[in-house]
Amino acid sequence: MIKKMIMVVGAIVIVAVGVVAYSFFKTPETASGPIEAIPLDAVNAVESLAASAGSTTEVTAAVLAMEGDSGAEAQEELIAAPEPPADSAGETGPAEEPEVEAATDVAADVEAVAEAGTARPGEANQVREEMTSTPIIFEIVQAESEARFLIDEVLQGDPTTVVGATDQAAGQFAVNPNDLASIQVGIIQINTRTLVTNNQYRNRAIKNRILLTDNYEFVTFTPSEIIGLPERGAVDEPLTFQLVGELQVTDVTRPVTFEVTAVATSDTRIEGTAKTTILYPDFELFIPDSPSVDTVDDEVRLELDFVADAV
Questions:
Q1: The model scores a pTM over 0.70
Q2: Can you list the domains of the chain with their CATH numbers?
């Protein structure tokens, strides 16, 4: 009986070792294809620009921008006003005047601003142009960009920083340089199957045992908020701001904030870097033990050096 039990345990151990060895040394799946950006709808960007102004018309936009007037509310009330009630004979009565006065007030306010000299010459026209201009769509140029992770470890007594990098990063964003508050940043994706370090065995361990890239090909960042942008930008003027959103690694999603530095090197090109630090246990990632690795830091630094061209 004891002999049979030893044989069973031995068989289980051999199978377990074989499974672990296979997971370490099997060849990971390659990328399903060149990564492509998820399109950012330009129409939505324009609508977002109008919404951020609090108005859908040039006139009320100018009023709001220069005076903070409630012209938008007046116009909305005018549009939403019900039809005049019918009298007992089925005929409609005279239109009520408050809504008409509200619309008249909006136009009058624009004229009053110009006449009173509260705006610089031509400012009303400038506001109208800014509020109705179409944002420019930019797309990450993969051949000139790099996404990477950095993690510190002690390898056989020597501190070292492991770097994994790929150029397979994709995303789009829409920018109106005259109204940076209206910027839209689309979903950013990184193809984890293309990440490489300076060690092929580590590459396989990362893909097969940590990021499980056969099942989860992409790391995805979905932006939700931008903090710290000025109202306007100019060519060769660096900007720093925070990009807040949800980062998904394997099947776990957590809130993350990237620190971003970006500069428009021309009217059609933007370059920059986005950085953040996460704790890999927060994403339920498991780093397997290795005889050559003494310790591994919990912190992982994520960086994206990007070049984006207008499309």
A1: no
A2: 57-132 (no CATH), 135-310 (2.40.128.110)
